[in-house]
Design brief:
By secondary structure, this protein is an alpha/beta fold. It has a single domain, classed as Spore Coat Polysaccharide Biosynthesis Protein SpsA, Chain A (Alpha-Beta Complex). It is built from eight helices and twelve strands. A hairpin with a 2-residue loop joins strand 8 and strand 9. Helix 6 packs across helix 7.
Length: 225
């Protein structure tokens, strides 16, 4: 069973703040964030294709700046779109017809463990659709105009992560049926299409870098590992 890995790196990094480079391209302990995010997939015999979507105006720059890992790992660089789902959709259109499963991973999740990939891939083979997630442990408040209007029960609530992995014949039709639906991840599209998504419990350390504080935490976690 062959897998394609789609790395989403075309975002604007607007919540990260001012930097010379977007967050997936920053150096994190000696490697760019995007390459650390990809590392657990490299060398796997079941991964037959790797694609990364970047902003259209960064395709040539990315291919030139990161030519060594791009060429070494035969990574296909795909022009992204206006929104994340457009960027992933462009990459999905370039997936080889021989691929049976597709994993979509955030380029800003550089602390993904290899064992999580193994567990999610195994679950996708069984269930057709699987994502990593961890249980919500904090108390949740619904706030309107600066005031709490409800304490939300956290029972059965989970924080979704990536890589979200699906059988090809499940993910592609779910994307085709999206239209303008404002989904926040691939699993939501698959749920909407009518297919159940299996959850693999994984550590909260598989964090997504959104802010500079997240980046500092990722540096600390890498230094202490």
């Amino acid at each position: 069973m062959s897998f394609a890995v789609v790395l989403a790196a075309a975002g604007r990094s607007s919540r990260f703040g001012e930097t010379q480079l977007k967050k997936p391209f920053l150096d994190l302990a000696g490697q760019p964030v995007w390459l650390r995010a990809l590392e657990p997939f490299l060398g796997r015999s079941d991964v037959s294709q790797i694609l990364i979507s970047v902003s259209p105006d960064e395709v040539d720059w990315f291919a030139s700046t990161f030519s060594k890992p791009v060429n070494e790992h035969n990574i296909r660089v795909i022009p992204g779109g206006a929104e994340r789902f457009d960027s992933v959709h462009n990459a999905l259109n370039a997936v080889s017809p021989n691929v049976e499963y597709i994993a979509v991973h955030d380029a800003a999740r550089p602390l993904l463990a290899a064992e999580v990939v193994e567990q999610v891939f195994a679950a996708a083979r069984i269930h057709g659709a699987a994502i990593p997630a961890h249980r919500v442990v904090n108390t949740l408040k619904r706030v309107v105009n600066g005031q709490i209007i409800e304490t939300v029960p956290r029972d059965d609530l989970w924080n979704a992560q990536t890589p979200q992995t699906f059988r090809r014949d499940i993910l592609l039709p779910a994307y085709a049926a999206r239209n303008e639906f404002p989904a926040t991840d691939e699993a939501q599209l698959v749920e909407r299409w009518g297919h159940a998504v299996h959850v693999v419990e994984c550590p909260s350390t598989n964090l997504k870098i959104t802010t500079k504080a997240d980046f500092a935490l990722a540096e600390h976690l890498l230094a202490s590992s």
